[in-house]
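The freezer alarm interrupted the setup, so I double-checked each line after restarting. Inputs confirmed:
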Amino acid sequence: MASNGSYNNDRPSSGGEPPEYSADPASGSFFHSDYKKHEDLKQMLDSNKDSLKLEAMKRIIGMVAKGRDASDLFPAVVKNVVSKNIEVKKLVYVYLVRYAEEQQDLALLSISTFQRALKDPNQLIRASALRVLSSIRVPMIVPIVMLAIKDSASDMSPYVRKTAAHAIPKLYSLDQEQKEELVHVIEKLLSDKTTLVVGSAVMAFEEVCPERIDLIHKNYRKLCNLLVDVDEWGQVIIINMLTRYARTQFTDPNADDVGEESQNKPFYDDEDDDDADEGDSEEQKKEEKTKKTYTLDHDHRLLLRNTKPLLQSRNASVVMGVAQLYHHLAPRSEVMVVAKALIRLLRSHREVQSVVLNCIASISTLRKGMFEPFLKSFFVRTSDPTHIKLLKLEILTNLATETSISVILREFQTYISSHDKEFVAAAIQAIGRCASNIKEVTDSCLNGLVSLLSNRDEAVVAESVVVIKKLLQTQPNEHKDIIIHMAKLVDFITVPQARASILWLLGEYSDRVPKIAPDVLRKMAKTFISEEDIVKLQILNLAVKLYLTNPKQTRLLCQYVFSLARYDQNYDIRDRARFLRQFIFPSAGVENSKLTKHAKKIFLATKPAPVLESKFKDREQFQLGSLSHYINARANGYHDLPAFPDAPSDSSVRDVELIVPVQETRVKKQHTVKKRSFYSESEQSSPVDEDSDEESSEEGTSEDEDSSSEEDDSSREDSESQSSDSDVRESGEEKETKANAKQKKTELKKAGKEDNNEVSEESDSGETMDDSSEEEKSDSSESSSADKKKPAAKEGPTKTVSDDSTKSVTKPKSNLDLLLELDDVPPTITPVLTPSLGGFLTPLSTHGMPITSVSIQLASPSFIPMKTTELLNKISGRGLHILSRFTRSPHLFSPAMVSIELTFTNLSSEELMDIRISQKNLPSGMSMHDFAMISVLPINATVPGTIGVDFNDSTQPVSFNITVGGHHNQVTIRAPVGELIRAVTMPEPLFITEQSKLRGMNEHNAVLNLVSSCIDQKTICQRVFEAANVASIPSTDSKSLRFAGQTLSSKSLVLVTIKILENDQANISVNCEKMVIGSMLLNEIKSYLRN
Amino acid sequence: MPPVIATPHHYLISIHRCCMFFVAVCMTEVPPLFVIEFLHRVVDTFEDYFSECTESIIKEHYVVVYELLDEMLDNGFPLATESNILKELIKPPNILRTIANTVTGKSNVSATLPSGQLSNVPWRRTGVKYTNNEAYFDVVEEVDAIIDKAGSTVFAEIQGYIDCCIKLSGMPDLTLSFMNPRLFDDVSFHPCVRFKRWESERFLSFIPPDGNFRLMSYHIGSQNIVAIPIYVRHNISFREAGGGRLDITVGPKQTIGRTVESVIIEIPMPKAVLNCSLISNQGKYSFDPVSKVLIWDVGRIDTAKLPSLRGTINLQSGAPAVESNPAINVQFIISQLAVSGLKVNRLDMYGEKYKPFKGVKYITKAGRFQIRM
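Predicted 3D structure, all chains:
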């Protein structure tokens, strides 16, 4: 409130002329009042009262804020640098930093105060003194600042050391001569081990001496390990620096894939034979992987591993930093991990979105597959600003492939009706690019574009014309009708660009429309004068070309056009006319010159088609995520990312013979100890998700194996690198003893610490400790050691480095998670309900289900098993005997339920009363519908009942209690995989297209020798029907039998094909999006066919 | 307006928030996101300090702004951006303190060193004390969706946040576990969360900052089917004599028995629309003839009588025919429901003796929810 008042007081004077001391004598009164006004500020500053000083300072800062000159107050202000009041002091600092450069001499007055403050016992005061001192840009004090920086760089307080690091670039910009000395300080600060300091130290390094890569070697591993705990801004700087460093030190991880392909082939040949039925791509992957483990340097791996967790940072620039690091450094197969995080950033602020989309656009030109799963995240909303829309369009176009093109084109179609004209034009261009890149859709795109020609919006038509022109060029085959159509458009379209395109097309393909072209030229000749320049040029062009092919009809027209052009106002057109004239109407005397002879060749040569490609292709030269990359121009101070060296540098330069290994073991120990004491309870109580455990155990698909082994690899390497590191660093025994000693110490320390945490209210030791580190720096020996150890010890819980122990313990679980995640994310859009909603809400048929399902119809089962299994025997059921049978009929309660018929028989000697289901123990996602309660079951009577169980497409058993007269019997039902399926029929072509969508991991194959008892197709059919509830699909191929079904819960298709081969073998393939179901069903069918 | 403008010698990086542009000027190469993220952090801090961030508020508090910027930046490099630290250095202004300061002559600037900055838990200040120890977690989920003309979902995903208000004494060490942590496609955390433990055990272990903060945000991608809690039946045409017709009905869908509240329908109309004369059976509608936006504040959806809005649209005579239909932006809130089905399992506290009061609240909202007409 006070500040508000002062602000208002200040205002009237701002209405006057800005200069405070006007030389104009007419403004004497102004001069006077201003002078007086400042006088009053000066008086306030000179007063004894802090509140007055503060008030004055606030008003002065207000003047500074509004950009008014307050430099004449400098002497009055600078006196207050000694003020005791912290706020006054701070504001004086602000003022000082602003005006010191202009008032150099006076600024010197304040220096001694800062020099004194630099020796203050309070680290905050030391730090702020250094901060202001280094911000005063007065060349005179360079030596003083240099000295202060040197002193502070070895200060006990990490905060002061951090400030020293910040001061370095300031001094460097003031005086470049000091570089050499500053580099020494930087070297010292780089070796600092506190996370507070290293970020700033690297920042100073980047500002002052980014070329001194050698300074990093020794600190490389430490920086990698500390990275997670550094503050966000430091992380960005360090990641960027390490990217550059790694580019100079390690070899290209992807170089081998391209270069040594042929060399490596024989190596893997035998392997190829072994797993011949695996897809090519998988082998390729495998190959890459084996190679990768050979080539990747340990330190390179360390960097990749330690930056990966930062993808989860809340700070977009950190995520981007890691993404560019992976993009520039990681082996091709690993870059994928960054995609998810980048997609997440798209939800952030608009500016972030713009930068990230820019980078994605650039990545997507090189790595198409990376963002393909996230295609839909780039769909455009009408509320997006135009530049975001264009970027999304660019990315969608880059990502288009044969499989996704139909979805993308459908989107593009909706975009064309947008209000945003610029966006519509871009959408049409994007269609053109898709058409030229993907041959399959060229024709349909062309048709679509032609239909746009009759759009009411002229801009749309014009853009379509331009795009069609480009497409026709790439498609040299006959498109006569399109050209005719476009020729007609000349009468309506006024957009010059489009008119020019049409004329060019007519000229180029005039031989296909020999009648129309001259007529168009006639029309154009009439309107020549009123045309735009670009159209005029094309008219000339058309005239020449027509004259060359058809001089009889067009000679006069041509002459007319050229004489009009000769007197055109635009010199370009006059020039062009003069130039073209020589070809067709050579001036007298040179009739038979070479030009005229070859004119036809010159004008009607076949021209190379334009390549429609992304405009982000050339951005690759810039480092991803950099300013230069964004503006697509070299920014000041941008350094190119160096190319990978041919040979890696010697990794021993990064070895450190310090106590680093000791520190690592110490941290590790502490971690485990801490864990045991703190978290043991939680570990037990934390729920482990086991609902789909069996899925993972069934999973034999190669991709999963890949990922899991990759994990293994990295962890193995991890341990390798660790051991090798320590080998190099120290001889074993020495290390051990040292480590032991240290360990004991830390354990002691830790015990003390825990006490603090737990009983801080009883004993004040915790607080006093903190206080001592803050203020009582004077008894240095004690507090300094405490200070140094504390950060290291405290790192424990947050430390992510080298906690092998946790990793090895939990590794299997994380692998499992990986497997499950894969399973949870099916590649197509069939409905997988989020678990909690599963039971209640079946998704509406409008979304999720593919449209094709219309022609997929439910069929009645071809075989109804009569086999019953005993659910409860009469002994344990005390006379109640229950048989169960799968009826394969849809359950009335919900179509997702498997209906099971239970037959209750009373074999006891007395009536059984009140038979019902009491307690159900269902795994999550499953649900169950009870049978109607049986109130009385007479002796030897048999009563049927039906239950419905939604197994949620898993073969996990459901167990429940059947109560008979108050007595509980636990029973368990497990459905064979064949019963989780419902028969459906569909036409054969649909079967084949659906099957082709479920290739790769979703396909399971086996070759089986048919036993003599089931050799003919009929028996095989019968057996398959027994194995699973599928329907036979009439097949045109006599050798193949096709069956179709869909899973009950998720309604994903299950397609079975049995191909009978020679010598009594049969090839069975099962395609199902649920990989587990597919593989289990295959086994089931196999076992049925064997008997 | 693109976020980066290149001039011959300077690069202007700007963000647009609270109807203001915040511009940073750079001379040399710098990752643009670094600057953008910092600017956003500055605005966040302003909002945190002044509870809102407007032009007049910034002008009013220019001294605090100066002091804040002075602490947040040093020679163009971010220094202290953690709100807990800043609040220790510079006390946020409020009327009571201003009066107290004028009476006692104390200042807003603290004389002590922010203890957090030196510890390994830089986001938490030490010596926190509360008489009532409370920890509240708000699970907020936003449904982003594009629904096409026919009502089928083109794209849907969930963006979730867990915002906390933690008022616990001392240095509590919390773990938060979920019933179904595998739901998350992608997550990002406040720096306080121990990432390794999340990776291995799938629960959040952290020493919280004091006060309000965003613990985590997560993303449930389009690979999962997202329940769409609302549907809009719409019919719009501009081609009839005497203007166009509009007919909109809103209804709930897949809400697990919860009511959909605070529904707002927003339609940016084409330029040619002059005015709308509509009748709604619930809520109020307004049409801004300048920005051409039709806003219908529906409120709560009662399943017995579905809210509808119908009537005519007056078109400018002589204007070119409207080719395309606008899109509908929908806002809604469903309380006590996390649409993804996420459930917090339990919260445990270690390191302190007292029993805190814990609370979890679930809210589902519309994010970028768009229906194409």
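Quick read of the result. Residues 702-729 of chain A form the longest helix (28 residues).
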